[in-house]
Specification:
CATH superfamily of the largest domain: P-loop containing nucleotide triphosphate hydrolases
Order of helices and strands: HHHEHEHHEHEEHEHEHHHH
CATH class of the largest domain: Alpha Beta
Largest sheet: 7 strands, parallel
Low-confidence stretches: 6-14, 105-115, 192-197
CATH topology of the largest domain: Rossmann fold
Number of strands: 7
Helix content: 40-55%
Number of helices: 13
Distance between the termini: 35 Å
Mean pLDDT: 84
Number of domains: 3
Shape: globular
Length: 339
């Protein structure tokens, strides 16, 4: 396969493996190689970025064979507990499961706790599971900027199911929808006005609304909430992929309803593949990724150009002093790159 970046070989040092050597270990299921690859993907160092680009390029033919599931919900809904129960169930079905758990980063120091392995202790000890906590680093939607590339590496490493846990529901949380096959929204019962407590835009994109913690005294409340959500979904416009969103209850603690979630995902996958939506959706997601990457690269070039930065600072001062309208200043700044 021909290299697409002429700078691929510039990063190599005597101590580290080449991208081809790393990929060979990765596709054989070497977890250390997968961890190193994910670290390269997340790194901001130029030499690491070059190696990551080659690694992703080489891994692409080995990817695409998993089911990608996005899991989101308000903080405290039990995402980590559910993922642990769900992941352990999947490994019992002889599936290899990778969890990409996105932790929120501090706006002050960009730090992140990365405590998902602690919250999913049993799953982290499972030989057929792999958990990778990553900082969101301010990314929109609570999804780390390099999550898409991490998915490809996990698929190349042979994982059958990729679970992406996001930091919680927010206005831009729907970013996760653009990189997964199945989107699951966890809900709480008895937490106030359910229909007002969640943004409609996220509900409309969910393939499954799952009312968690349906156990003990909360079982009845969970069933009532599920009924409310079912009635609400009837008011939403139909999906373009002909899938009718479902509402279910479960208890991650009691491990009830977990099997039914997997059966529903299988039903979704079979229906989408039969109707031709599965592949077309992934193709569109790839196009979206391509267009977003152009924007990121343009911004990166802009920041690296000293002339552009000088012009930027001048325009910034003019905007601040009210001498130029912000959009016009932005047009000026962008056009400066192409002069």
């Amino acid at each position: 396969m021909q290299n697409i970046n002429p700078n691929f070989k510039k990063y190599k040092s005597a101590e580290e493996p080449t991208a081809k050597e790393l990929l060979k270990e990765l596709v054989q299921g070497n977890r250390a190689a997968l961890s190193k690859g994910l670290t390269l993907v997340e790194s901001k160092k130029a030499e690491h970025r070059l190696m990551a680009e080659e690694l992703i390029h080489l891994a692409l033919p080995h990817s695409g064979k998993s089911v990608r599931v996005g899991i989101t919900g308000v903080p405290g809904v039990g995402k980590s507990t559910f993922i642990e129960a769900f992941g352990n169930y999947l490994t019992e079905q002889e599936k290899k499961v990778a969890v990409l758990a996105i932790d929120p980063s501090s706006n002050k120091n960009r730090g992140s706790i990365l405590g998902d392995k602690t919250r999913m202790y049993a799953l982290s000890q499972n030989k057929n599971a792999f958990i990778r906590p990553s900082p969101s680093a301010g990314s929109l939607g609570g999804v780390a900027r390099k999550t898409r590339e991490s998915i490809l590496l996990c698929e190349a490493a042979g994982f059958d199911v990729i679970l992406i846990e996001t930091v919680g529901v927010g206005q831009s949380e729907t970013t996760v929808k653009s990189m997964v096959d199945f989107f699951m929204l966890l809900m709480l019962a008895g937490a106030g006005d359910e229909l007002q407590g969640i943004k409609r835009g996220i509900m409309e994109m969910a393939d499954l609304l799952l009312v968690n913690k349906a156990d003990g005294d909360n079982t009845r409340k969970a069933k009532l909430s599920a009924a409310e959500y079912k009635r609400a979904l009837h008011l939403f416009p139909p999906n373009n992929n002909d899938w009718i969103p479902r509402v279910q209850t479960c208890s991650a603690l009691a491990k009830t309803g977990v099997k039914e979630c997997w059966e529903l995902i299988n039903e979704f996958e079979n229906q989408q593949k039969t109707k031709g939506y599965f592949e077309s959706t992934r193709n569109q997601q790839a196009i979206n990724w391509f267009e977003e990457s152009i924007g990121e690269l343009l911004l990166s070039q802009f920041k690296q150009s000293k002339k552009a930065q000088t012009n930027f600072q001048l325009l910034r001062t003019q905007v601040q002093n009210g001498k130029i309208e912000p959009y016009a200043a932005a047009q000026n700044a962008v056009s400066f790159l192409f002069e």
